[in-house]
Amino acid sequence: MKRVDLIEFSKIITDKSTALEFLCKQYKTNDAVCCPSCNSEKYYITARGKMRCKNCKIDYKPFRGTWLDIISIDFVKWLALIKLFDLGISARRAAVESNVSYPTALNAFDCIRYSILYRLAETDHQLKGEIEADEAYFGGKRKGNRGRGAKNKTIVFGILERKGKVSVQIVDNVSAKTLLSNTIKKVRKGSIVYTDKWRGYDSLVFSGYRHLSVDHSKVFANGKVYINGIEGFWSFAKERMAKHHGVSPGKFLLYIKEMEWRYNHQDEDTFSLLLDYMLVVNN
Prior knowledge:
By secondary structure, the protein is α+β, with helices and mostly antiparallel strands. The chain is 37% helix and 16% strand. The chain folds into two domains: 6-122 and 271-278, no CATH class; 130-246, Ribonuclease H-like superfamily/Ribonuclease H (Nucleotidyltransferase, domain 5). It is elongated, with a radius of gyration of 22 Å.
C-alpha cells in the first residue's frame, strides 16, 4: 500500500463503511473476518458499516481477537488514532482530533505500542558486523554516577549495527556482567564492537568479540572507531520522549521500544506497518 498522508487519509476514510472497506483490503488473511456462525468467508459491508454474512445473513463484528478488538471504538476512530500515532501526535491532541476521551486515546496508543512490542519480539535476531554499543540515562532530575547506577533514572543499553538496525533494552546497571550478557544475547560472536572507554566493556575482548574503544575525553572519533551512530539514536529517542513530559517506569519499555521501531523504519510506510500489527490475531 502506498504511503497515505493525512489529507488523503481524510478523503479515503469518510464513514464507517469506508473505514471497514479499507481495513478489509489491508487485512492479509480471512481468519478474523469470517462469519462466527457458519465460518463463511463471503461477506458484504452494509450501508451502516456492518459486516454481513452472504451465507446466513447475520451481522457480525470483524477482526475478532486482534488488537482492534481490545478497545470498543468504531473503526473510523481506530484508523484516525493509528494515523495520528504514526505521525507522532500526542495522545492528548489525538483525543481532540479523533473525538474520543483522553483516557481512550491513551489506551489506544498503548495498545499500538504493545502491538509493536509483540512484533519486535517475533522478529528479534542477532546483529552482526560492525556494532556500536552504548548506554543512556532517561528521566530523573539529577545526573547519577555511571559506575554505581543512576539514581531515579532508567538505564537503557543500546546496540547499533552500522548500516543496519538499532536494538535497545532496559538494564539495571552498567556493570561488566550486565553489559556482556546483553551483548552476547544481541550480537553475533566475531563482530567488531565499538564503545567508549567505560570499563564495563573491557570483557568483550575475552568473549569472542573484537573490541575497539574511543576515549571521549580526548576525541569523539578515531578513524572508524566511534559511536556516533548509537549516540544519534539517543538524540532521536530523547527528543521524541520529551514531548510525553515523563513516562512511568511501568510503561517505559513500551515507549523506548517504540523509539527503536520508529528509528529502524524511518524510510518506510509506517502506517501500513502499524495496520499489519494491529490486525494480528492474538491467540
